Amino acid sequence: MSAYFNGVVVRSAGERPAVAELRLPEIGPGQVRVRIKAAGVCHSDLSMVNGTIRAPYPLVLGHEAAGEVVEVGEHVTRVAVGDHAVLNWQPPCRECWFCAHGEPWLCSTSSGVAALENGVTLDGAPVHVSLGLGAFADEVVAPANAVIGVPAELPFEQAALLGCGVLTGTGAVRNTARVAAGESVVVIGLGGVGLSVVAAARAAGASDVIAVDVSEAKKGLAEAAGATDFVVSSDALSKEIRVRTAGRGADHAIECVGRSATIRAAWRATRRGGKVTVVGMGSNDDLVQLSALDIFSSSRTLRSSVYGAADFDTEIPRLAADVLGGTLAIDHLISDRIGLPDVPEAFDRMSRGEGARSVVLL
Ligand code: APR
Ligand code: ZN
What we know:
alpha/beta; seven-stranded mixed β-sheet; 2 domains; single chain; ADH-like_C; binds zinc ion; Quinone Oxidoreductase, Chain A, domain 1; Rossmann fold
């Protein structure tokens, strides 16, 4: 039977989101119904509220989530009722060229940014669910390939973070930048994603992890995550970085904001031949200006890292094992535990650069 449940909905760009009563469809073959237990507030949600990322409305927000499987459709064998699971907002088809070539995070069936409809209704009309999930809600219906089981000992609030911020941050370091022992790394933007990058860079053996944010309040969080230096972002950033890197610039800069200004700052923070990794998801209208001569003569590499450039199905169980085994600490990423009605205030805190992750507990 379909049932009513609550979800956080934004009705148009710029409008304040609010809890609304939604109706969930009955599940079909290949689908899974998950009772959400925890969902992290990621900047991409805020970007869909303020219009930085263009999305269709009305839209149920939330995509960094974990919960318990409560119903499985026909042909579903990956998970069973009662399993604890993390949700994937970019489930790979396993059939397209990218999946067949070992890059499932670039799967051509996943749009990545746009929201999809999945039969959920609001006031009797279909409503969009962000990134195919809409996880600031009591329940979601998702395709089975978007659901991966994790050990029941893993707290839901930590499992949720694995599903976006932690996978994105650790994957950027391990899979895209491939930070090696002894290298120097500048991390720009210290939200849930950037702090995960800091911790992963340190774990990879980086000698210097220089954490950068506009908000001075991030210093303590950066140090707790393993940063060796903290610098408040300013126009003099590249000079500050050079002072700390023997005048050369860093081996790596990892951008976790999603703006042209910070991508340029990351570029300028690296040495000749250095690597710039863009993790932040910016706007289509925000152009990055780099000089053609600088691109040539600096010999830097500029790459993005989408969803940690990781295979979700193998990486999530590995990250869960790391957390349970004590080799990956993510508890410090959670600064606020909130309810569904508190999501708008979590966006306000995020806009002011306060705290690390707010996690909705259900
Ligand atoms: N220079 C340095 N830091 C900045 C700047 C700037 N110009 N502008 C913003 N910041 C900082 C904020 O103060 C904040 O600490 O960037 C951080 C961003 O953190 P969150 O808002 O918590 O964002 P997060 O969820 O970590 O996501 C970061 O990754 O997945 C993408 O869409 C997401 O683009 C976003 C990015
Ligand atoms: Zn996210």
